Amino acid sequence: MAELELQVSDLRGGYGKKEVVHGLSFGLAAGDVLCLLGPNGCGKSTLLKLLLRFLPKTAGRIICRGVDVDRLSRRQMARYFAYIPQRDQAMFAYTALEMVTMARSAYLGNMQTPKPEDIEIAYDCLCQLKIQHLADFPYFKMSGGQRQLVLIARALCQKTCILMMDEPTASLDFANQQLINDAINELARAGKIVIVTTHNPAQPFAIASQVLLMREGQTLSLGPPQQVLTDESLEQVYGIPMQVVTITDRKQNQRSICLSV
Fold first, then answer.
1. Region 2-13 average pLDDT
2. Residue 59, beta-bridge partner list
3. Does residue 163 contact residue 204 with C-beta atoms inside 8 Å?
4. Which strands make up the sheet holding 4-15, listed edge to edge?
5. pTM, to two decimals
6. CA 35 to mean position of chain CA atoms
7. Cα–Cα distance between 164 and 34 in angstroms, integer?
């Protein structure tokens, strides 16, 4: 069994006195992709914020590579965890390369500017995602899919072991959704741990090694998508009749999709 790099035990927290996440536990090894799946308001985004310490937890432990994250400074946290939001508002006309290079701040001292080697690392991250042609293109002029790829490149540039994505395919067309799914699969093959929130019950079949199926801040089920995502479990979470269907695509690969029936 692969050694766990992230261990979360009985994690609880929320907003003020309102507890939203109630005792969640899971462990992830290098190369794992965990999809957090559930309806609106079930605690997916809150869980991400607790893991990143954007919100204070009220109980539980988060251990990353043997270190309790409560002992880490903000700069040290940025060397373990990278966060990719749904969208990022660019207030200035930064290029893609400039946006990605910003991630190197985790390794720079106060008032330090990026060195040539930092810019080279940033450019290499664009190359990894095959978007080096966007290096000098203004971020604010890009499509939604291109922006998401730049944000993923920026997360790569932090050189962390864990990447967290909050609904990375939300509001994207089908082609751009596939681009992001392909990028997530490449990150997993490179040994990164990726945690993804999603509303799409079919997406875990395309990218996830594990699914945390959530309802009202609690774990309904945890495990591989083929075990966790069943007609019965999806109906229990979403409150409508659901069916998981296995199809054979034109390349003769077996694929699972979810339908409301």
1. 94
2. 12
3. no
4. 18-29, 4-15, 57-64, 67-68
5. 0.91
6. 8
7. 10
